[in-house]
Amino acid sequence: MSCILNISCISVVWNSNALPTGNLYGSFRHYASYDQCLKPPWLHTHPQMKTKYCFTDFLLSDESDVKTVADYDPLGPTMEFINSPSPSGLPVNHIMWGICIPAVCSSNAVSKLTKVMYESATLSSIASDVTVKHCQEAGERAPYSTGYYIFIALILSLITTAVASTCYRMYVSSGEESPNSLKTIITKSFCIIKNQEDLVKVNKGEIRSMNGIRFLTATLIVIVHVVLYIVLSGINNFADFEKQFEGIGVSYLHGDIIVDTFFTMSGLLHMRGLMGRQQNLFGVLWKRYIRLIGPFAIVVFYLTFVSKHWNSGPGWYNLEETDVCEKYWLRNLLLVNFDIKLSCQATTWYLPCDYHLAILGTLIFYFYQKKRQLGYTVFVAVLLLSMIIPAVLTYWLNFQAVILLDFGKHIMNYRDTWQFNYIYTPFYSRGSPYLVGIAMGYLTTIYKPGVYRKCVPKTWSIIATAVGVCAMLFTLSIAYIIVCRGYDPLEAAVFVGTKRILWSAAICCIIGMCEYGTVPIVSNMLSWSAFTPLSRLSYGIYMVHPLVIQKFQLSQRSTHFFDFYCILYSTVGASVISIGLSYAMWLFVEAPLINITNQLLFNKLNGPVGATATNGTQHRNGVTKTKSS
Fold it and tell me: Cα 228 to chain center, whole Å?
């Protein structure tokens, strides 16, 4: 069958394709008729007419013609508009188009046919070669690998073990068996009833205000990533989306600093765990690794072997997570990857960053153990370096103070945004909030909130909390200040060097006033009992919510319409499902793994001495420990 000359094929191709529309309003992705192409009614009766869906990429003008500043003239030529970037830097001349063609066509034929079809229909020209990103034949399915069946078997085994252990613990008395036997350790660790109790239990000495802050932070991160994946999968009214960042709205682009709240609390809990008792510091780091790796390993396993079978839709064609996971899964699981291009998910850069900061915090504590003054000196030196290094890199490489200020430039190929690998994902770029958390953890261990509660007068508590909130708002408004004042390299360096420490100090100030003072409404709200289990599920929420968002957003057969109700609707749905999956992750993966690690390593190395309880479960060295008595 001739790809170009067969009249019936050309008829199928033409009727299955929808020409790109709305690109002048910022719509750069166009999906055409995905299901019509891949599921024709004659697929099995006329296999010689099989088609395939290809996602292509091309430019309407040369890169050299694109302007750096928009030039909109309604009386001027169309190409002047096409060569003008959008306010966020989105190249209007860049088109991604899904087309339906005969299955026998080669990639070269796809490229030529796409160019002919577009130019003949629009009476315009394509300046570049057409790049074929991905093709999928009608009726084609990826074969199920051994890894797929292993993943399914693993999940079923974990659930079965948990159910069997729960039934066993319900009918067997603890006094009837050896506490150190393997059977006892496994059944206690997997007991659903016990793990459920640990999830909702309020322990003495925990910093309850952190529960609300942690869950609210997780929710804000879900909102940010809902917007991220809507943008990545295409918005047909992108110009309306950009208008939200005009004026003071540009402060939204600094929302990436929200994740520094997690680093602050991680440092706080890590130091409280280190100072809770004398222990082997290598064991500390091993348990921290185990704490992080359980849910992450499930996510990596899913992305590598399962995701491609459970997800479909044209939005997935520009997502490289499965391919990246297949190549670099070991590097990701060892937590040594800082390159966003090699990350299994765009959001998992947090894990190696957090773990390396845990190593740094443990080293500082080691020097503190040797000599207190030496520990203080090292802490101050590292804190200064954590501010100086990002500032110097920003000045030297001429970065913006807010890396997302020109987000439109990075949408189509966000993994190739090399700036992220210098001042966004490395551990030294997030060192200052973690170190501020360490300082707060040290203070709350020396001056226990339970002993010094309400020692700060109510008036000063309210004033300090208000100052903390204002500091956070000021940090978010840096983007607006930069836009108003214009870019200055030195100012950008100063902002980058100080903004994270200011944010984390504000967070610690609010926590401190809620614990040591009296802050009406705020303290009660953040300490609400419902936040206790939700806080402990926050790590699981962080790990699974991108999968939930992707499943919905990237499976759409058309680009999205942006408005705040759509964002709210998607956020609520993603949050609820993520909480449910995180709850399952806690019962069947997180809690059992932590329990087994503590039983096999911690108890044998350190004996049965209790540890300081913080935030609902016992935190030793910043690692959650659930009792399995």
Answer: 10
Q: What SS3 string covers 121-190?
A: HHCCCCCCCCEEEEEEECCCCCCCCHHHHHHHHHHHHHHHHHHHHHHHHHHCCHHHCCCCCHHHHHHHHH
Give the C-alpha separation, 470 to 433, whole Å.
17
Q: First-to-last CA distance in the chain?
A: 71
Buried b / exposed e across 39-49, counting CB within 10 Å, b at 16+? ebeeeeeeeeb
Q: Tokens 């189509």 belong to which residue?
A: 412
Over residues 285-321, the pLDDT tens digits come to 999 999 999 999 999 999 999 998 888 888 887 778 8
Domain ranges of the chain: 7-137, 185-612
> Closest Cα to residue 566, out of 549, 541, 579, 545?
549
Taking the C-alpha atoms of residue 92 and residue 120, their distance in angstroms, rounded to an integer, is 20
Asked whether the predicted pLDDT for residue 70 surpasses 80, the reply is no
- C-alpha 256/C-alpha 496 separation (Å) is 13
Burial state string for 238-257 with b = 16 or more CB within 10 A and e = fewer than 16: bbebbebbeeeebbebbbeb
Q: Identity (one letter) of the amino acid at 580?
A: G
H helix runs in 517-623, sequence order: 522-526, 531-536, 538-553, 564-585, 591-597, 603-606
- Sign, Cα dihedral of 584, 586, 590, 592: negative
pLDDT value, residue 627: 40
Which residue is associated with the tokens 């551990």?
Answer: 427
Mean pLDDT of the chain: 86
